[in-house]
Amino acid sequence: MTLNFNAELQLKDFSYNAQFEAGNEIVVLFGHSGAGKSLTLQLIAGLLKPTRGRITIGAETVFDSDAGLDLPPQDRSLGYVVQDLALFPHMTVGENIAFGMTGSAQEQRLSDLLDLMGLNNLRDRRPLSLSGGQRQRTALARALARETNLLLLDEPFSALDESLRVELRRELIRLRSELDLSVIFVTHDLREAHLVADRLAVFDEGRLLQFEGREHVFRQPANGRVAELTGVANILRGRVSVVKPGDLTIEAGGTILRVPEPRNWHPAEGDSVEVAIRAERINLRRLDVNEPGKANLVGATIREELAYGATHTLRFTTALGQPIEVEIAARPYEVMGVAKQKSWTLELPPEDLHLMPLSSKSAVEAPRASATTA
Amino acid sequence: MIALRARIPLASAGLLCAIFAVFFVLPFAGLIERGLGEDGAWKAISSDTALDALVLSLWTSTLSLLIAIVAGTPVAYWLSHTRFPGKGVLEALIDLPIVLPPTIAGVALLTAFGRKGLLGGPLDDWFGLTLGFSTAAVIMAQLFVSAPFYVRAARAGFASVDAQFERVAHTLGASRLRAFTQIVLPLSWPSLAAGAALCWARALGELGATLIFAGNLQGETQTMPLAILNTFESAEGLTAAVALAILLLAVALVALAIFWMFSSRARGTA
């Protein structure tokens, strides 16, 4: 099953434009609220009509502005869990789940789904008497009852506590492989995105900024905005000073940084660039430990500390002239005696530095990751 | 002092409520007292006039309700699901008969469907079809004044159903008709039932428009309210009128009770 999506939508004060495809995988649409994630699901489901574009689900084209084709939602083969769930309040759990069923052996399939979702004892209950987690499982079962290969999930686990989330995510990953499902999963939760995504689509203000394998997006954001959205704490500004194949030298605030050559573009000497590095990728070194040959060492002083229990976030003023944030686990924090020492050397490992073109606001054309389906 | 100050408004509010309640209860008490106390009441109730009027009232008001439901439901659904310029004006027009004095409604119907009316004239000339002063006119008068009650309630009922339910029903493969019958209808059922009850009651009590547009012929256009008016002005006077009034009241109460029983059961199983 492949979903091919290409749609443009012009509203009074919002313009939307995105293009991606999804195979047998979980594609997470990630971004802040109002970025266009839920809108994407509505366009796929036929609840909203694109101004222009073409959408195909498997072999069937469900929307094509050139051909004047626009199948109504009831003729599109997909399961859709909306954010507010919208369980029918006058029907029982069983009736809700069976609502979208077609074909034979419905009773058997209903009891299978009740089993699968752990809803057996709740079959005759009304949605109003259920807990948040039970409602979400009912909504998921109702969507699965359509027996289609495309599942659209809009923040499906938002009302669950952490233990149930973990369980349902595992369930979802299992279902995806067992039922040959394509899942389009909307979330604004970075951790959740990282956990369930095979591929990640980062949305911002109606634009698809990057669509690639999860690790690519997290480690090699297409631009500063993607880096920001995916929780990269440090985006440093600099200028390309030397370009060698596979290896670049960046000058930032009088300090020289070695950075690997980026995959998708070729910076030239003198270009202004941004360098991204995640807070947990930076190593803390004592001033007196001298290791010649180590690249990218930066002198720094702790300006602010935040203790989160399992981790500590340290904010440094640095020789780069730009602040740097470092995340360190509680154990090394104690062993190294960070609490008593203000001045440190920061090591920015070259392999964890990612070079991005400047002008983070402009939407960079998302590279079509063709063979990266995890 | 503080307690006293708080008690005075409370006490006066209670007194007002009591007076208000008495104002509504006393007329019914008067009816019962008169009806039971006088001879001749039973004679009035068992007369042909009363029976004819009762039968006519019941079937015409029920038919009016059915027409209101069949024609009014789609209108109400459409009004609750679309937006267009001038919608407010259209809704006000549909509500107009609710605030219109029934006599004006009667005159208006006459000018439209009467023998010399806008449509009534040509109908009479070309087909020899006369609507005025017939049983059809009774139903038209009832429909005109009562249907807006149903449409109004149904519109509000449909609008109160979260549109998301219908959208989700569509994504689950439901056609518009199935989404309507299985989602919208059960969820708006209380409003529809209340609107239907109001509509039927209004049709049953219709007097002014019927009198002007349909006349007062026993067995043909003389509904219960007309019969009561007639009796009141006749030799038997108040006593007989009271008896008929109690009869109509009792029948209406029984009908409404049966209706609510069925509708609450339907709601329970929907």
**% residues in beta strands of chain B:** under 5%
Instruction: Give the low-pLDDT segments of chain B.
Output: none
Number of strands of chain A: 21
Total helical elements of chain A: 9
Strand arrangement across the biggest beta sheet of chain A? 7-8-9-3-10-11
Written account of the structure:
The complex is a heterodimer of chains A (374) and B (270). Chain A has nine helices and 21 strands. Chain A is an alpha+beta fold and 374 residues long. In chain A, the strands form four sheets. Chain A has a six-stranded mixed beta sheet with strand order 7-8-9-3-10-11, sandwiched between helices. In chain A, strands 2-1-4-5-6 form a five-stranded antiparallel beta sheet, with helices on one face. In chain A, strands 14-13-12-15-21 form a five-stranded antiparallel beta sheet. The relative contact order of chain A is 0.13. The mean pLDDT of chain B is 88. The relative contact order of chain B is 0.15. Chain B has one domain (38-269): Orthogonal Bundle (MetI-like fold). By secondary structure, chain B is mainly α. At the A-B interface, loops of A face helix 8 and helix 9 of B.
Topology of helices and strands:
The complex is a heterodimer of chains A (374) and B (270).
Chain A (H helix, E strand, L loop, with lengths): L2 E8 L4 E8 L3 E5 L6 H9 L6 E6 L2 E5 L4 E2 L8 E3 L11 H6 L7 H11 L15 H13 L5 E5 L7 H17 L3 E6 L2 H7 L2 E6 L2 E7 H6 L4 H6 L4 E11 L2 E6 L2 E6 L11 E6 L5 E3 L11 E11 L3 E8 L5 E6 H6 L7 E5 L6 E4 L17
Parallel strand pairs in A: 3-9, 3-10, 7-8, 8-9
Antiparallel strand pairs in A: 1-2, 1-4, 4-5, 5-6, 10-11, 12-13, 12-15, 13-14, 15-21, 16-20, 17-18, 17-20, 18-19
Chain B lengths: L1 H36 L3 H5 L2 H34 L5 H13 L2 H12 L6 H8 L7 H26 L2 H9 L4 H29 L3 H6 L10 H10 L3 H33 L1
